[in-house]
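Long-time lurker. I teach an intro course on protein structure, and each term I like to show students one example going from raw sequence to a predicted 3D structure in token notation. This year I'd like something fresh instead of my usual example. Would anyone be willing to generate the tokens for the chain below so I can use it in lecture? Attribution to the forum is fine with me.
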Amino acid sequence: MGSINLKPARGPESGGEYNREERAMLLRLAHEAIEASLNGSELDFNPPTEHLAELRGAFTSLHLHGHLRGCVGYITPACPLWRTVAETAAAAAFDDARFFPVTPEEAKELRIEISVLSPQFPIAPEEVIVGQHGLIITDGVRRGLLLPQVPVELGWDREMFLEQTCCKAGLPPNAWKLGAQIEAFTAEVFGE
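-- Reply from a regular --
Happy to contribute to a lecture. Here you go:
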């Protein structure tokens, strides 16, 4: 794998909870996880730093020629960030049901974006800030999540963001007005 060309981090912590070197290591790890899955080889899941060993939720998004090619993540921290990124990168490449598995040829051209999540917290609809908050809307067993960058990329306002998160959960668009639980989180987003 060659050098990683980093895009600037986005989000409220864009000043950097993760420094440039850590972001490059995580992006390189995501590529290596995809390659290891393609080759049937094993990865070293020992984090190189204590910071990357912290339990954190994260999503890994794959892009091919400017289009989404897969996105998988863990909302709540289940394992060290290092392992979370490796597992979500491989899952985004091969297990995202919206897409066919990534081919070896495509793997060489993938651009990766990682969103490291804060803990989630309850939020009132009027407190949601587009571009700062990601949303989780839950009603019964249905749950939908959209990352903070999604409404910005699609030009949505707050109400559309709430409605589309409901739709992602398989709920009516107005479920957020009818008692569905609304939670938010922030994310440090960085990529190639």
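Some talking points for your students: The mean pLDDT is 92. Residues 7-117 form a domain with the Glycoprotein, Type 4 Pilin fold (CATH 3.30.700.20).
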